[in-house]
Amino acid sequence: MWKEIETELLVAREASNLIHRRPSFVKLVVGLYALSLFDLENGRVMRASYLPVRFVDDLLDGDTKFKSNLLHYAEELKDNIIRNSLTKTGVERQLKYAIDNLESRAKSGDNPRGDFVKSINSIIFDYHRAKERRVLTLSEVEDYYKTAFDPVINITLMATDSSIRSKDIPALSYGQGRVYSIRDIITDWQRGIINVPKEVLDECKLSSSSSSVEVGNNPIFKRWTNISLQETKPDLINTQKFLKELNEKQTFLVCNSLISPMIKFIDKYY
Asked: pTM, whole model, 2 decimals?
């Protein structure tokens, strides 16, 4: 019982910190707590899974202050996950609680510890490519979406005791990648996160050193975003239908909380 109480206290502090640095995330935090209305333990595991990874992501993005070496912190955390040595910090103890619970309910083929490692590796990859303003090819960008979102989706589905995994709903990964990349183009570009493929930049006669305004106003870029979103929308709708027919209410609600805003974004802007 003490582990549950400690985890909830750590989670509450992390949730408060997230709202403080990102006020727009209030609705997300409320949603994380609302999951406990379906199942108290599932909700707790979800919060203990999401909030520490969100912290690491914000840390390496520069959205929160940190006195120590950012990259060293992320690498050490990843190594501690691999070694199952998560005891030092509140973030580590939250992750330990989440991983222990997810491993106890893992099905054949599940690897929650590996998914957390992959998720942090993706954050570290973003940190490095932002420093270099690295440009990826179209195939590399699509692979990146899968690498970045599949582990998080797997963790989410395991936390909700779902019968499916990311491989069953691939559109949720590449859909988030495509929609968020277009939605956040200005912020990402200024940070050095270039999700516009090399082939598109070459056709636009632009480069990673071009301004975000030049990119956003380029008609070839606009055409590419339109095509990308038009191709993605039917896949999201089909995924939504599949999830409804799955007859797993919690799985549908959690996944649809991601799908529905993406469809609304596509409809509103394109």
From this structure: 0.94
160-200 per-position pLDDT tens digit? 999 999 999 999 999 999 999 999 999 999 999 999 999 99
Over the stretch 69-121, which tens digit does the pLDDT of each residue have?
889 999 999 999 999 999 889 999 999 999 999 999 999 999 999 999 999 99
Angle between helical axes of 70-83 and 112-132 (0-180°, round to 10) = 160
Give the dihedral sign, CA 30/172/174/106: positive
Burial 149-179 (b: 16+ CB within 10 A, else e): bbbbbbbbbbbbbbebbbeebbbbbbbbbbb
pLDDT at 237 over 80: yes
| Structural element, H or E, at residue 10 | helix 2-21
C-beta atoms surrounding 192 within 10 Å: 16
Exposure of 97 by Cβ count < 10 A (0-12 exposed, 13-18 middle, 19+ buried)? buried
Going by the DSSP 8-state scheme, the letter that residue 205 receives in this structure is T
Q: Torsion over CA of 117, 8, 17 and 66, rounded to 10 degrees?
A: -50
Contact 172, 232 (CB under 8 A): no
Nearest CA to 95 out of 34, 7, 12, 159 is that of 7
SS3 per residue for 40-60 = HHHHHHHHHHHHHHHHHHHHH
Tally the residues of the chain. 270
**Contact between 91 and 54 (Cβ < 8 Å):** no
pLDDT, tens digit, for every residue of 39-55?
A: 889 999 999 999 999 99
pLDDT tops 80 at residue 68: no
Q: Which residues 6+ apart lie within 8 Å of 102 measured at CB?
A: 45, 49, 110, 112, 155, 158, 159
Tell me how many degrees the CA angle 46-47-48 measures, rounded to the nearest 5: 90
Q: Rounded distance, CA 98 to CA 155, Å? A: 9
